[in-house]
Amino acid sequence: MLLERCLPGYMLSSEPEEKQDLLIAALLKRLWRRSTSLNGIHAFRHLSELLNLWRQEMLAQSQHWLDAGLVREGLQIFQTIGKPAPTDTLLATDLHAGNVLRSQREPWLVIDPKPFVGDPPYDVVQHLRNCEARLYADPRGMVKRLGELASLHLPNLIAVGAVNQAGDETSFTSYGDTVIVVLWRRAQGANVLDAGLRPTDSSDCTASPADSMMWLQSQLTRTDMMGNVWGANQRITHQEAIFCGTVNGAYAAFEEHLKGRIRPGQLADLVVLAQDPFKTDPSQLRKLEVERTMVGGIWRFES
Predict the structure, then answer these.
(1) Is the pLDDT of residue 79 over 50?
(2) Chain region(s) in the chain for CATH 3.90.1200
(3) How far is CA 178 from CA 31, 57, 74, in A?
(4) Is the N-terminal amide bond of 8 cis, ω within 30° of 0?
(5) Where are the alpha helices (DSSP H) in 60-153?
(6) Span 12-182: which CATH code?
(7) How far is the CA of 13 from the CAs of 190, 205, 297, in angstroms?
(8) pTM recorded for the entire structure
(9) Range with lowest mean pLDDT among 153-157, 217-221, 266-270, 283-287
(10) Is the pLDDT higher at 207 or at 302?
Protein backbone atom coordinates (compact mmCIF):
# COMPACT_ATOMS: atom_id res chain seq x y z
CA MET A 1 0.00 0.00 0.00
CA LEU A 2 1.30 3.44 -0.93
CA LEU A 3 0.54 6.27 1.49
CA GLU A 4 1.36 9.84 0.53
CA ARG A 5 0.19 13.12 2.00
CA CYS A 6 -1.27 15.42 -0.63
CA LEU A 7 -1.09 19.15 0.03
CA PRO A 8 -3.25 21.16 -0.43
CA GLY A 9 -5.19 17.98 -1.30
CA TYR A 10 -8.34 19.44 -2.79
CA MET A 11 -10.12 17.46 -5.48
CA LEU A 12 -10.05 18.14 -9.19
CA SER A 13 -13.85 18.24 -9.03
CA SER A 14 -13.51 21.75 -7.56
CA GLU A 15 -12.16 22.95 -10.91
CA PRO A 16 -14.29 23.80 -14.01
CA GLU A 17 -15.33 20.73 -15.98
CA GLU A 18 -13.49 21.88 -19.12
CA LYS A 19 -10.25 21.87 -17.12
CA GLN A 20 -11.17 18.47 -15.70
CA ASP A 21 -11.44 17.12 -19.25
CA LEU A 22 -7.88 18.16 -20.07
CA LEU A 23 -6.35 16.81 -16.88
CA ILE A 24 -8.28 13.53 -16.81
CA ALA A 25 -7.28 12.82 -20.42
CA ALA A 26 -3.63 13.69 -19.74
CA LEU A 27 -3.47 11.56 -16.60
CA LEU A 28 -5.05 8.59 -18.32
CA LYS A 29 -2.67 8.76 -21.26
CA ARG A 30 0.22 8.87 -18.83
CA LEU A 31 -1.07 5.86 -16.91
CA TRP A 32 -1.75 3.87 -20.07
CA ARG A 33 1.64 4.71 -21.59
CA ARG A 34 3.56 3.60 -18.52
CA SER A 35 1.50 0.51 -17.85
CA THR A 36 1.99 -0.95 -21.33
CA SER A 37 5.70 -1.43 -20.64
CA LEU A 38 5.22 -3.25 -17.32
CA ASN A 39 5.87 -6.95 -17.03
CA GLY A 40 3.31 -9.16 -15.33
CA ILE A 41 0.24 -7.25 -16.53
CA HIS A 42 -1.43 -10.66 -16.86
CA ALA A 43 -1.46 -10.88 -13.05
CA PHE A 44 -4.43 -8.50 -12.98
CA ARG A 45 -7.99 -9.55 -13.73
CA HIS A 46 -9.41 -8.80 -17.15
CA LEU A 47 -12.23 -6.27 -17.46
CA SER A 48 -14.44 -8.96 -18.99
CA GLU A 49 -14.65 -10.62 -15.56
CA LEU A 50 -16.14 -7.45 -14.05
CA LEU A 51 -18.56 -6.94 -16.95
CA ASN A 52 -19.71 -10.55 -16.71
CA LEU A 53 -20.29 -10.17 -12.97
CA TRP A 54 -22.46 -7.09 -13.56
CA ARG A 55 -24.33 -8.93 -16.28
CA GLN A 56 -25.12 -11.85 -13.98
CA GLU A 57 -26.22 -9.48 -11.19
CA MET A 58 -28.58 -7.68 -13.53
CA LEU A 59 -30.08 -10.87 -14.93
CA ALA A 60 -30.88 -11.91 -11.36
CA GLN A 61 -32.83 -8.66 -10.89
CA SER A 62 -34.85 -8.81 -14.10
CA GLN A 63 -38.14 -8.46 -12.20
CA HIS A 64 -37.12 -4.91 -11.24
CA TRP A 65 -36.20 -3.71 -14.76
CA LEU A 66 -38.17 -0.61 -15.73
CA ASP A 67 -37.32 -0.95 -19.42
CA ALA A 68 -36.50 -4.57 -20.21
CA GLY A 69 -35.70 -3.86 -23.85
CA LEU A 70 -33.15 -1.20 -22.96
CA VAL A 71 -31.46 -3.33 -20.31
CA ARG A 72 -31.28 -6.37 -22.59
CA GLU A 73 -29.70 -4.20 -25.29
CA GLY A 74 -26.99 -3.15 -22.85
CA LEU A 75 -26.46 -6.69 -21.59
CA GLN A 76 -26.12 -7.94 -25.15
CA ILE A 77 -23.23 -5.54 -25.66
CA PHE A 78 -21.73 -6.79 -22.39
CA GLN A 79 -21.28 -10.19 -24.05
CA THR A 80 -19.14 -8.80 -26.84
CA ILE A 81 -17.31 -5.87 -25.27
CA GLY A 82 -14.22 -6.24 -23.13
CA LYS A 83 -12.84 -9.34 -24.81
CA PRO A 84 -9.02 -9.62 -24.62
CA ALA A 85 -7.25 -7.68 -27.38
CA PRO A 86 -3.66 -6.77 -28.31
CA THR A 87 -4.33 -3.13 -27.35
CA ASP A 88 -5.36 -3.98 -23.77
CA THR A 89 -3.57 -2.10 -21.01
CA LEU A 90 -3.80 -1.70 -17.25
CA LEU A 91 -6.84 0.46 -16.39
CA ALA A 92 -7.65 2.59 -13.36
CA THR A 93 -11.41 1.88 -13.93
CA ASP A 94 -12.52 4.56 -11.42
CA LEU A 95 -10.66 7.69 -12.51
CA HIS A 96 -12.93 10.72 -12.17
CA ALA A 97 -12.42 14.23 -10.81
CA GLY A 98 -13.18 13.12 -7.25
CA ASN A 99 -10.24 10.71 -7.38
CA VAL A 100 -7.63 13.26 -8.44
CA LEU A 101 -6.00 15.40 -5.74
CA ARG A 102 -3.91 18.57 -5.91
CA SER A 103 -0.38 17.91 -4.67
CA GLN A 104 3.21 19.22 -4.61
CA ARG A 105 5.34 16.35 -5.92
CA GLU A 106 3.10 16.38 -8.99
CA PRO A 107 0.45 19.01 -9.76
CA TRP A 108 -2.27 16.32 -9.60
CA LEU A 109 -2.16 12.78 -8.20
CA VAL A 110 -4.52 9.90 -9.00
CA ILE A 111 -5.93 7.98 -6.03
CA ASP A 112 -8.10 4.91 -5.46
CA PRO A 113 -7.31 2.90 -8.62
CA LYS A 114 -9.20 -0.34 -9.13
CA PRO A 115 -6.92 -2.11 -11.62
CA PHE A 116 -8.23 -4.32 -14.40
CA VAL A 117 -6.75 -5.13 -17.79
CA GLY A 118 -8.87 -4.01 -20.72
CA ASP A 119 -9.71 -1.52 -23.46
CA PRO A 120 -8.57 2.07 -22.63
CA PRO A 121 -11.90 3.75 -23.62
CA TYR A 122 -13.51 2.24 -20.54
CA ASP A 123 -11.44 4.53 -18.30
CA VAL A 124 -12.88 7.69 -19.87
CA VAL A 125 -16.48 6.71 -19.14
CA GLN A 126 -16.16 7.40 -15.41
CA HIS A 127 -15.47 11.08 -16.06
CA LEU A 128 -18.26 11.30 -18.64
CA ARG A 129 -20.76 10.00 -16.11
CA ASN A 130 -19.89 12.82 -13.71
CA CYS A 131 -20.60 15.57 -16.26
CA GLU A 132 -24.35 15.01 -16.48
CA ALA A 133 -25.47 18.48 -17.55
CA ARG A 134 -23.00 18.64 -20.43
CA LEU A 135 -23.91 15.14 -21.56
CA TYR A 136 -27.57 16.11 -21.74
CA ALA A 137 -26.79 19.34 -23.57
CA ASP A 138 -24.42 17.89 -26.19
CA PRO A 139 -23.72 14.15 -25.78
CA ARG A 140 -22.11 13.74 -29.18
CA GLY A 141 -19.87 16.77 -28.74
CA MET A 142 -18.69 15.79 -25.29
CA VAL A 143 -17.89 12.20 -26.23
CA LYS A 144 -16.00 13.48 -29.28
CA ARG A 145 -14.05 15.98 -27.14
CA LEU A 146 -12.98 13.35 -24.59
CA GLY A 147 -12.12 10.88 -27.32
CA GLU A 148 -9.83 13.38 -29.04
CA LEU A 149 -8.20 14.58 -25.81
CA ALA A 150 -7.44 11.01 -24.77
CA SER A 151 -6.39 9.98 -28.32
CA LEU A 152 -9.01 7.23 -28.41
CA HIS A 153 -10.82 5.58 -31.29
CA LEU A 154 -14.24 7.27 -31.07
CA PRO A 155 -16.49 4.27 -31.88
CA ASN A 156 -14.83 2.29 -29.09
CA LEU A 157 -15.40 5.09 -26.60
CA ILE A 158 -19.05 5.36 -27.62
CA ALA A 159 -19.56 1.61 -27.32
CA VAL A 160 -18.03 1.44 -23.85
CA GLY A 161 -20.04 4.44 -22.70
CA ALA A 162 -23.21 2.91 -23.99
CA VAL A 163 -22.95 -0.23 -21.89
CA ASN A 164 -21.55 1.19 -18.69
CA GLN A 165 -24.28 1.03 -16.04
CA ALA A 166 -26.72 -0.47 -18.53
CA GLY A 167 -28.46 -2.21 -15.69
CA ASP A 168 -29.14 1.14 -14.09
CA GLU A 169 -31.36 2.04 -17.04
CA THR A 170 -28.74 3.88 -19.08
CA SER A 171 -30.46 6.06 -21.66
CA PHE A 172 -29.39 5.86 -25.31
CA THR A 173 -29.68 8.45 -28.06
CA SER A 174 -29.10 7.32 -31.63
CA TYR A 175 -27.45 9.42 -34.34
CA GLY A 176 -27.68 7.38 -37.54
CA ASP A 177 -25.68 4.22 -36.96
CA THR A 178 -23.81 5.73 -34.02
CA VAL A 179 -24.95 5.40 -30.43
CA ILE A 180 -24.19 8.24 -28.06
CA VAL A 181 -24.84 7.73 -24.40
CA VAL A 182 -26.57 9.94 -21.86
CA LEU A 183 -25.70 8.34 -18.55
CA TRP A 184 -27.91 8.43 -15.53
CA ARG A 185 -27.44 6.05 -12.67
CA ARG A 186 -30.96 5.31 -11.53
CA ALA A 187 -30.87 4.44 -7.86
CA GLN A 188 -33.69 2.38 -6.48
CA GLY A 189 -35.77 4.11 -3.82
CA ALA A 190 -39.01 2.58 -2.57
CA ASN A 191 -38.02 -1.01 -3.42
CA VAL A 192 -34.93 -0.77 -1.22
CA LEU A 193 -36.88 0.61 1.74
CA ASP A 194 -39.65 -1.96 1.29
CA ALA A 195 -37.01 -4.68 1.52
CA GLY A 196 -36.06 -3.41 4.99
CA LEU A 197 -32.69 -1.96 3.98
CA ARG A 198 -31.31 1.41 5.11
CA PRO A 199 -30.07 3.28 2.01
CA THR A 200 -28.02 6.44 2.43
CA ASP A 201 -27.47 9.52 0.28
CA SER A 202 -23.71 9.00 0.09
CA SER A 203 -21.75 7.72 -2.89
CA ASP A 204 -18.16 7.87 -4.11
CA CYS A 205 -19.40 8.12 -7.70
CA THR A 206 -22.53 10.25 -7.85
CA ALA A 207 -24.74 10.51 -10.89
CA SER A 208 -25.30 14.21 -10.29
CA PRO A 209 -23.53 17.12 -8.59
CA ALA A 210 -23.12 16.72 -4.82
CA ASP A 211 -26.15 18.84 -3.95
CA SER A 212 -27.94 17.50 -0.86
CA MET A 213 -31.15 19.43 -1.49
CA MET A 214 -31.24 18.24 -5.11
CA TRP A 215 -30.88 14.66 -3.88
CA LEU A 216 -33.76 15.21 -1.47
CA GLN A 217 -35.90 16.68 -4.25
CA SER A 218 -35.07 13.79 -6.58
CA GLN A 219 -35.99 11.18 -3.99
CA LEU A 220 -39.44 12.70 -3.61
CA THR A 221 -40.10 13.53 -7.26
CA ARG A 222 -37.79 11.09 -9.13
CA THR A 223 -36.77 13.95 -11.42
CA ASP A 224 -33.28 15.00 -12.43
CA MET A 225 -31.88 18.52 -12.81
CA MET A 226 -33.39 18.75 -16.30
CA GLY A 227 -36.89 17.80 -15.13
CA ASN A 228 -36.82 14.28 -16.60
CA VAL A 229 -38.68 11.65 -14.55
CA TRP A 230 -36.84 8.42 -13.70
CA GLY A 231 -38.61 5.49 -12.06
CA ALA A 232 -41.71 7.30 -10.79
CA ASN A 233 -42.74 4.21 -8.82
CA GLN A 234 -39.61 4.59 -6.67
CA ARG A 235 -40.68 7.89 -5.08
CA ILE A 236 -40.38 8.00 -1.29
CA THR A 237 -41.77 10.30 1.40
CA HIS A 238 -40.23 13.38 3.03
CA GLN A 239 -39.56 11.43 6.21
CA GLU A 240 -37.95 8.51 4.39
CA ALA A 241 -35.75 10.80 2.29
CA ILE A 242 -34.52 12.82 5.27
CA PHE A 243 -33.78 9.60 7.15
CA CYS A 244 -31.63 8.46 4.20
CA GLY A 245 -29.50 11.58 4.54
CA THR A 246 -29.26 11.61 8.33
CA VAL A 247 -30.20 8.56 10.41
CA ASN A 248 -29.28 5.98 7.77
CA GLY A 249 -25.99 7.68 7.00
CA ALA A 250 -25.00 7.54 10.68
CA TYR A 251 -26.06 3.89 10.85
CA ALA A 252 -23.93 3.01 7.80
CA ALA A 253 -20.90 4.63 9.49
CA PHE A 254 -21.56 2.76 12.79
CA GLU A 255 -22.02 6.16 14.46
CA GLU A 256 -25.75 6.19 15.15
CA HIS A 257 -24.95 6.79 18.85
CA LEU A 258 -23.25 10.09 17.88
CA LYS A 259 -24.89 11.36 14.71
CA GLY A 260 -28.08 11.36 12.66
CA ARG A 261 -30.53 12.94 15.11
CA ILE A 262 -30.91 16.11 17.14
CA ARG A 263 -31.18 14.90 20.72
CA PRO A 264 -29.23 14.94 24.01
CA GLY A 265 -25.95 13.05 23.93
CA GLN A 266 -25.38 13.38 20.18
CA LEU A 267 -23.11 15.79 18.32
CA ALA A 268 -24.51 19.30 17.92
CA ASP A 269 -24.15 19.34 14.13
CA LEU A 270 -27.16 20.77 12.31
CA VAL A 271 -28.44 23.19 9.69
CA VAL A 272 -31.29 25.68 9.77
CA LEU A 273 -33.19 25.96 6.50
CA ALA A 274 -35.10 29.00 5.27
CA GLN A 275 -38.40 27.10 5.56
CA ASP A 276 -39.81 23.77 6.67
CA PRO A 277 -38.97 21.13 4.01
CA PHE A 278 -42.05 19.12 5.05
CA LYS A 279 -44.25 22.06 4.02
CA THR A 280 -42.33 22.88 0.84
CA ASP A 281 -43.43 21.79 -2.62
CA PRO A 282 -41.16 18.79 -3.37
CA SER A 283 -40.30 20.25 -6.79
CA GLN A 284 -38.91 23.36 -5.07
CA LEU A 285 -36.75 21.70 -2.40
CA ARG A 286 -33.56 22.34 -4.34
CA LYS A 287 -34.11 26.09 -3.96
CA LEU A 288 -34.25 25.97 -0.14
CA GLU A 289 -31.42 28.02 1.29
CA VAL A 290 -29.35 27.19 4.35
CA GLU A 291 -29.56 30.06 6.83
CA ARG A 292 -27.28 28.73 9.57
CA THR A 293 -24.91 25.81 10.13
CA MET A 294 -23.80 24.52 13.54
CA VAL A 295 -20.77 22.23 13.93
CA GLY A 296 -19.76 20.96 17.34
CA GLY A 297 -22.22 23.27 19.06
CA ILE A 298 -20.77 26.39 17.41
CA TRP A 299 -22.46 28.39 14.65
CA ARG A 300 -19.99 28.17 11.79
CA PHE A 301 -22.10 29.81 9.10
CA GLU A 302 -24.85 32.44 9.03
CA SER A 303 -26.36 33.86 5.86
Answers:
(1) yes
(2) 12-182
(3) 28, 28, 15
(4) yes
(5) 68-80, 121-129, 132-137, 139-149
(6) 3.90.1200
(7) 30, 12, 30
(8) 0.56
(9) 153-157
(10) 302
